[in-house]
Amino acid sequence: MAIVTEALIRDYAARDGLGLAEWVRSGAVSAAELAETAITVIDRLNPQLNAVTRKAYDIGRDLAARVPADGPFAGVPFLMKDLASQWQGVPATWSCPYFKDLPAPSDSEMTRRIKRAGLVPLGRTNVPEGGWCISTEPKLYGRTHNPWREDVTPGGSSGGSAAAVAARMVPLAEASDGAGSIRVPAANCGLVGLKPSRGRITFAPDAVDIWYGGVYMLCVSRTVRDTAAYLDAVAGGTPGDPYTPQSPAEGWAAAARQPARGLRIGLVTRAPDGGPIHPENLAAVRGTAKLLESLGHAVEEHDLDFDARRAWAVYTNMLAVETAAMFAALEPLVGRPVTPAEVEPLTWAAIERGRSIGGIRHANDVEALRQFARGLIGQLLPFDAVLTPTLTQPPRPFGHWDMSMTDYDAYNALWSDAVFMFPFNLSGLPAMSLPMHWTPDGLPVGVQLVGRTGDEATLLRLATQLEAAQPWIGRWPPVCAGT
């Protein structure tokens, strides 16, 4: 077994994923040494953060011993989110007692692509139960703390992944997004979080579609180039997938390196539901707008014109039906119907709401969401990209979103912080949070770039430009490896 020194940990923590892969290819370090370094860091920091809830070190060590040398992330330690992705031999519990013993008999296509890229999964990261929270404090596993400050949430639902990456346990980790669950934790933890275009990544073989195109898979990372290379590694549909966005011929990593010149960028500083935006979040988006102007882009104010409250009500009714359907579909695998004792009260409220909605109403809801999406896409067509706050507030203290609530609508009303998130889930547009601002007391605040349908390339070019102009990689949180 490799000897892990403090010098090795410092070098490990200073590199992004591609930097670690280059280190492996140079022969200076082996994949096995990186795996042991990551394991050491996880074991050292996880008692403070509770980011990793299921360790799979022996599986990871076996993968590291036979990692594909030609993969873009050859030998790079990685963490899987404890939600949705199938990883053979490692159950996904969704932080839900009902699913805690559900087997994973095989890898999903996404997991196979992760392994082919050379990534070495070492465990699963904490999530709120079922993923329906923008904090991470499930009853089953307990809260995940933010490496920047322990009393505020890292976000959710990919909060465990984001905390782990921010603390440099691993350079990137799996994330997914149904109403902001990649972008929210990226914003709260000072990371890059891209929600790709609808249909960009297949759910095969276990699902064809989730939430009518509202759910997306990718990662959180510390650098734009890692996100672009990861997208290259895992993107692509399978025959029969319902959405097929076009891809750049040269790939996204190459596209991200191309210069971004003279783009027309819409600037959104008013919440579409009419709610307040915190001065720090406004400062983040306005400061980024000024930086973009200094880089040669044309920035103009734009208000999002749609009924956000109505769209959110329809969206949450749709996902309640999908939640009820999912629990029903998994009954044969679990061996019994779900009971209120096996889920948090909010999850049970979603199941009951979903069971109460008839087929005609559900079909009409889905059509209404598609009409909302058409209108939103149409109004943003004049812009190459749109700049918005990621969240309307800096990272919240724990307890703001409480899944012990039994009133489904009252709980969902608390999501006003994320009013800039779900419109781009229902529209299918790519959207990316970048760490462009920190509050005076040291908390990260993200801004969001939204692109045209299928155009992650423009977002990645802009993000690369912003990263070079205002680097964030040198900001290390108080709880972090290598410090």
Unreliable stretches, pLDDT < 50, 5 or more residues?
A: none
Can you tell me the CATH topology?
Amidase signature (AS) enzymes
* CATH architecture classification: Alpha-Beta Complex
Order of secondary-structure elements:
HHHEHEHEHEHEEHHEHEHHHEHHEEH
Question: What is the helix content?
Answer: 25-40%
| Shape label | globular
Q: Count the helices. How many? A: 16
Q: Structural class of the secondary structure composition?
A: alpha/beta
Average predicted local confidence, pLDDT: 97
Strand content: 5-15%
Based on CA atoms alone, the radius of gyration comes out at 21 Å
CATH superfamily: Amidase signature (AS) domain
- Which oligomerization state do the chains in this entry correspond to? single chain
How are the strands ordered across the major sheet? 4-6-5-10-11-9-7-8
Number of strands: 11
What descriptors fit this protein?
483 residues, Amidase signature (AS) enzymes, eight-stranded mixed sheet, 16 helices, globular
What layout of secondary structure does this protein have?
Elements: H1 6-14, H2 17-25, H3 31-49, E1 52-55, H4 57-65, E2 77-81, H5 109-116, E3 120-125, H6 159-166, E4 172-177, H7 183-189, E5 192-195, E6 216-221, H8 224-234, H9 252-257, E7 264-267, H10 279-294, E8 298-301, H11 308-334, H12 345-356, H13 359-380, E9 385-389, H14 408-413, H15 422-427, E10 431-438, E11 444-451, H16 456-469
Parallel strand pairs: 2-3, 7-8, 7-9
Antiparallel strand pairs: 1-3, 4-6, 5-6, 5-10, 9-11, 10-11
Helix pairs in contact: 3-4, 6-7, 11-12, 11-13
